[in-house]
Write a structure and sequence with these properties.
It is a single chain. It is built from 4 helices and no strands. The chain has 139 residues and is mainly alpha-helical. The chain has 2 domains: 1-82; 92-134, no CATH class. The termini are far apart.
């Protein structure tokens, strides 16, 4: 009886060894399949990314061409739509403010303007200079 048990135990061990060997081969095959699948997936993703990037690049080039065309049109229109030199006026509040500071529009110079506006706050100086630039009296 003990002999039979040893034989059964030996048979079971042989079966277990065969099963372990088979499991190792299956695991290797699965690892190879996974590697091939990962390589295929990476190649497909790279192709998709390249397609999307090419499409986006073409889209950006088209937008750039449109923008360059619009800039050229605006520059051409700006050259032809130059304002005629006519009467340049300031709002009365600005004229009054400048006259109170002793600045006349005929003798407008940057140095005299800065000296006249030094008593004003920074915001008020900026507003006055902005109005003068809009009116074309200060360059």
């Amino acid at each position: 009886m003990e002999m039979e048990m040893k034989d059964d135990l030996g048979l079971t061990m042989d079966r277990l060894a065969a099963a372990a060997d088979m499991l190792e081969r299956v695991a290797e095959q699965l690892a190879q399949r996974q590697s091939v699948f990962a390589d295929d997936a990476e190649a497909k993703i790279n192709r998709i990314v390249a397609t999307v990037e090419a499409h986006r690049e073409a889209e950006l080039e088209e937008k750039l061409a449109e923008a360059e065309l619009k800039i050229a049109e605006l520059q051409a229109r700006g050259a032809t739509d130059a304002p005629a030199s006519g009467r340049k006026t300031l709002p009365t509040t600005m004229s009054n403010l400048l006259s109170k500071q002793g600045v006349t529009l005929d003798s407008l110079e940057a140095g005299s303007l800065d000296a006249a506006l030094c008593s004003l706050s920074v915001e008020q100086r900026i507003a006055v200079k902005s109005q003068l630039i809009r009116a074309g009296l200060l360059g």
